[in-house]
Amino acid sequence: MMIMPEASATAGGQQSLLRLMTWLSPAFPVGGFVYSGGLEAAVEGGHLADGNALAPWLSTLLSSGSLRNDAILLGEAHRVFDDPERLLGVAELAAALAGSAERYSESVRQGDAFLAAASAWPHAVLDVFSGGTAYSVAVGAVAAAHGVTVCDTLAAYLHAQCAQLVSAAIRLGLIGQRQGVAVLAGLEPLILRQSEAVAGLTLDDLGSATVIADMLSMRHETQYSRLFQS
Predict the structure, then answer these.
(1) Is 128 helix (H, G, I), strand (E, B) or coil?
(2) Which of 54-68, 114-128, 139-153, 216-230 has the lowest mean pLDDT?
(3) Predicted pLDDT of residue 185
(4) Integer distance in angstroms from the first to the last C-alpha of the chain?
(5) CA 148 to chain centre
(6) Is the pTM of this model over 0.85?
(7) pLDDT per residue over 42-59, tens digit each?
(8) 215 pLDDT band (50/70/90 cuts)?
(9) Residue 9 scores a pLDDT above 60
(10) What is the DSSP string of 73-116?
């Protein structure tokens, strides 16, 4: 019996890591920089008066809000990536759960852009989708297709989403770059805990308790002056 060298397994793991880093890098062309996920409306409405409020806000989204739901949908897409019918069902559910027009647009535009850019790594899973795919579902399916573990994918995705919101907060003048880095450092334990916890959840566990954040996402649609599209 031939035993593959350990270096080969290590190289495969490193390749998956590199791909995950690329897919969730700010340089990956999904247009995430134009969205704030309702954060701009929260700042405009005084719900986030200073930088000290940002970490609790993001923590709530991670544990009880949209980021938790996105993570659950990502995990389900990761599990069923090789079953086109079930995968499309997850994609349709994710699109239907968008709480506002801007939330829907933000999610599916990034998802479709992600799938288009991911074609640089050809795989049959890309042919399953025909447009209007939520970002979390796209990331979960593509990561699974390339052998990235669900926990690694969840951790990287949640960190990237938090980093994007921190970047939006910096551009809104709520915090500076140094404080932004401190916020991300402080969120690491929660991101890791949520990644492990969500990996075992199913679609039956979907749910949100962040009513104010959801309402602000709707309010942003009619905000007079704004930097972001959501």
Answers:
(1) coil
(2) 216-230
(3) 97
(4) 57
(5) 16
(6) yes
(7) 888 788 888 889 999 999
(8) confident
(9) no
(10) HHHHHHHTTT-HHHHHHHHHHHHHT-SSHHHHHHHHHHHHHHHH
The pLDDT of residue 4 is 31
Length of the chain: 230
- Encode 159-185 in three state secondary structure: HHHHHHHHHHHHHCCCCCHHHHHHHHH
Dist. CA 140–CA 89, nearest whole Å: 14
Q: Which helix (H) or strand (E) holds 200?
A: none
Query: Residue 116 in contact with residue 135, Cβ under 8 Å?
Result: no
CA-derived radius of gyration, the chain: 18
Q: CA–CA separation, 60 vs 5, rounded Å?
A: 45
> Inter-axis angle of helices 150-171 and 54-64, to 10 degrees?
150
Give the count of beta carbons closer than 10 Å to the beta carbon of residue 197. 14
Burial class (CB in 10 A: 0-12, 13-18, 19+), 229: middle
**Does pLDDT of 15 surpass 80?**
yes
- Higher pLDDT pick, 210 / 109: 109
The H-or-E segment that residue 216 falls in is helix 211-219
Q: Which amino acid is at 130?
A: S
